[in-house]
Amino acid sequence: MSEYQAAAELLRALASPLRIAIVLRLQDGPKAVHELVDALGAPQPLVSQHLRVLRGARLVHAQRHGREVAYALVDTHVSKIALAAVQHADET
Questions:
Q1: Separation between Cα atoms, residue 49 and residue 44, nearest integer Å
Q2: Which of 14, 23, 29, 89, CA to CA, is 20 to 30 A from 36?
Q3: Per-residue DSSP letter, 17
Q4: CA torsion, ordered 89, 45, 6, 15, to nearest 10 deg
């Protein structure tokens, strides 16, 4: 896969306001699903669906802690990209 194709897939995975919000919430460290639901004010099934997309794109990973599943960014690059996009949109 070319680097351009990989970049396009990354941007496609971020192509949702809720997924951008999730990524930005995770930049401070791992969060359980219920923490993301509370912080974002979105229904749990919707947050879980978007987390599946981010996992499929290998942008986040999950770790089970008893009955809870915590999600974390694979690396900080993705949060920098999301933050730059939000800042750019705010400037226009």
A1: 9
A2: 89
A3: H
A4: -20
Greatest extent of the chain over all pairs of C-alpha atoms, in Å: 45
- In sequence order, the 6+-apart residues with CB closer than 8 A to the CB of 11 are none
- The confidence score (pLDDT) of residue 65 equals 86
**Domains of the chain, each with CATH number or no CATH:** 3-91 (1.10.10.10)
DSSP three-state, residue 73: strand
pTM listed for this prediction: 0.93
Buried b (16+ CB within 10 A) or exposed e, 38-72: eebebeeeebeebbebbeebebbeeeeeeeeebbe
Distance CA 88, CA 82 (A): 10
